[in-house]
Automatic annotation (TrEMBL):
Xref: Pfam families: RibD_C
InterPro entries found in the cross-reference section: DHFR-like_dom_sf, RibDG_C
Domain Bacterial bifunctional deaminase-reductase C-terminal residue range list: 4-145
Protein name per UniProt: Dihydrofolate reductase family protein
Length: 190
């Protein structure tokens, strides 16, 4: 069955990263890594140019373990990159990402995003996201945070599908998102 899952990690106040903090805010643990390793790997990874450049750099340098990502099919959306791409199993789409993902879903592909906040926002706004999964790290990055996950999102109702706690501190929350035209009960836009 075709399904698109948007996966993000975030501080409690909604940032995807923070200046001076290590990856995973230094709070990753064995239960979290075990859960990530146990996830099915029968999907296509969707990402934008910046995420592609970061992750393919990790893969080519060996600086970080990219796990099963190396062998998974990947699609990168960019109008500035050109073929051939250096990371194996990666296809470039330079056209409209929303239309390309809509077509992939019609073809029955199982899809998941990696980073790429503007891509995730566009896919959510277009109503293409079936699952929104967030892992919340117990830190507030008010002074150092950047990449606000929810900046410029539409209003969205989230229906809880699953929840887990890892290592006694990380919360995974999985939702079915519904994009709203505005707050419930508000008059429809003219």
């Amino acid at each position: 069955m075709s399904e698109l899952t948007v996966d993000v990690i975030t501080s409690l106040d909604g940032y995807g990263a923070a200046e001076g903090w290590p990856g995973f805010w230094g709070m990753e643990g064995p239960e979290y890594f075990e859960w990530m390793a146990s996830e099915p790997t029968d999907y296509t990874v969707l990402m934008g140019r910046k995420t592609y450049e970061l992750m393919s750099g990790f893969a080519s340098s060996g600086a970080e373990d990219v796990g099963p990502l190396d062998s998974l099919p990947k699609v990168v959306f960019s109008s500035t990159l050109s073929e051939p791409l250096g990371w194996r199993n990666t296809r470039l789409v330079s056209g409209d990402a929303v239309e390309a993902v809509r077509a992939m879903k019609q073809d029955g592909a199982t899809l998941r995003t990696l980073g790429s906040l503007s891509l995730c926002r566009a896919l959510l706004t277009a109503g293409l996201v079936d699952r929104f999964r967030v892992v919340v790290f117990p830190v507030v990055n008010g002074a150092t945070g950047y990449d606000n996950i929810y900046a410029d999102w539409p209003d969205v109702r989230l229906d809880l599908l699953d929840q887990k706690v890892f290592d006694g501190r990380l919360q995974m929350l999985e939702y079915r998102p519904t994009v709203l035209d505005g707050p419930p009960g508000a008059p429809a836009p003219a």
